[in-house]
Design brief:
Helices cover about 55% and strands about 0% of the residues. It is mainly α. It contains 8 helices and no strands.
Length: about 150
């Protein structure tokens, strides 16, 4: 089978990756990706994707993806995880919702309280139908971003 993405490491890159693996002071997935690159190198052991996947207990797709990122985007991209194009979840409060929350927190508290609490703010957002439900922690995070 012809490989579309062939890894050829320079001696400097090889040394950098070997040091990376030897020290072991980074995230495990980065060490895994460094090991994959070292072993699929055409100038070195030249393992195929299946051999590397079996040796490092990962999916052959992981090996293919690391190869592809190394060829297309370089060493740094191959060592790191691929960034998500879109977030898994949409944020509960968009810009307008965040602005309403901040304005609400700056307004006078309800007559029954001496000040706004996170629970009161969340309940008021639900009452105003800005969101269906919201946790106190989400309210806290939004307010913390504004400081």
């Amino acid at each position: 089978m012809n490989k579309k993405y062939i890894v050829r490491l320079s001696s400097a890159e090889r040394e950098q990756l070997e040091e990376f693996v030897r020290k072991g002071k980074v995230a495990a997935y980065k060490i895994l990706h460094a090991n994959i690159l070292l072993n699929v190198d055409a100038e070195g052991p030249s393992w195929n994707d299946e051999q590397a996947a079996v040796a490092f207990h990962c999916n052959p797709n992981t090996v293919r993806n690391v190869r592809q990122r190394w060829v297309e985007e370089g060493l740094e991209s191959a060592l790191n995880r691929k960034k998500q194009a879109t977030p898994s979840r949409k944020p509960l409060l968009d810009g307008a919702g965040q602005a309403r929350l901040i304005a609400l927190s700056c307004s006078p508290p309800p007559p029954s309280s001496s000040r706004w609490t996170l629970k009161l703010l969340g309940d008021k957002l639900v009452e105003l139908k800005i969101v269906k439900s919201i946790s106190q922690d989400t309210v806290r995070r939004v307010l913390k971003k504004t400081n």
